[in-house]
Amino acid sequence: MSKRKVKILNIPRIIVFLLMIYIVVSLGIFIYNEKVHHYEISGIDYYKEIDIIRMLDLQDYPSYISINAGELKDKLEDDPLILSAKVSYRWNFTIKIEVEENTPIMVIKSSNNVILKNGDQIPYNESFGSLPMLLNNTPTESLTMLADSLSKVDRGVLYMISEITYTPYNSSNVILDNNRFLLSMSDSNQVYVNAKNCDWLNEYLNVIANNRITEPGTFFFDGKLGKIIYKKAKGKEVVVNGSENNG
Questions:
Q1: Helices (H) and strands (E) in the chain — how many of each?
Q2: What letter does residue 161 receive in the DSSP assignment?
């Protein structure tokens, strides 16, 4: 008769196996219980980081694994002042939040509504602070174009705009430019712009500094880029330049 083989337990292998299970379970419990360590927030200008954290009810730093990125994204995009958002997980228990704001641009005098970057309108409230005032009726297409274009202007210049007037350019009763606006600045200057290229206003302070302009007048930023015209209250029009390398 053949002898039955007796299996000998491999004690070291069992110990290693049990140790691996212990490590995996312990790591899972650690990750499950560990709170968020850090929020990495980008793309905000109007909002502050603490505003975003409070909006998402994350100020108590909840469990990292309990974060639902999709729900947080939807919650952010429900805010009219946010165009889009992306929430993702990062190493070291970090949550990354990327935001594109729908910045408040101006107030419509007739309705007291605020025009946002994408052309949407919402009621004004004091939290928006001081914004330029649009004084007259403006076609929706031109208004939407102006809001988007002004959103590309540096804050330092944008905050200098006090009033905006829709002033289409006419010649012999023919409209040659139906996207033209006149901006009244806080430094007493008047500036004509075209709604398509308000980002040229980023040259405004350079124009004043480089040309040593001290007397209030009218600037024409609605022509060709590199050819900015300045006219004193009583004087001839002159071509002025902005940056050293600009036209």
A1: 6, 15
A2: E
Phi, psi (rounded to 5 degrees) for 227: -125, 85
Please say whether the beta carbons of 136 and 146 come within 8 A.
Answer: no
> Model confidence over 14-38: pLDDT tens digits?
777 778 887 777 777 767 678 999 9
Query: What CATH number should be reported for the domain holding residue 190?
Result: 3.40.50.10960
Block residue for tokens 């905000």? 44
Q: Cα separation of 201 and 161, whole Å? A: 11
Close Cβ partners of 82 (under 8 Å, ≥ 6 residues apart): 76, 99, 100, 101, 102
Which has the closest alpha carbon to 108: 151, 165, 183, 161? Answer: 165
- Tokens describing residue 104: 């408040």
Q: Are residues 89 and 158 in the same domain?
A: no
Of 55, 85, 101, the last residue of a domain is: 101
Rounded to whole angstroms, the Cα distance separating 34 from 68 reads: 15
- Would you state the structure tokens that stand for residue 87, as one six-digit string? 């929430």
* Range(s) of the domain holding residue 56: 33-101
pLDDT at site 247: 41
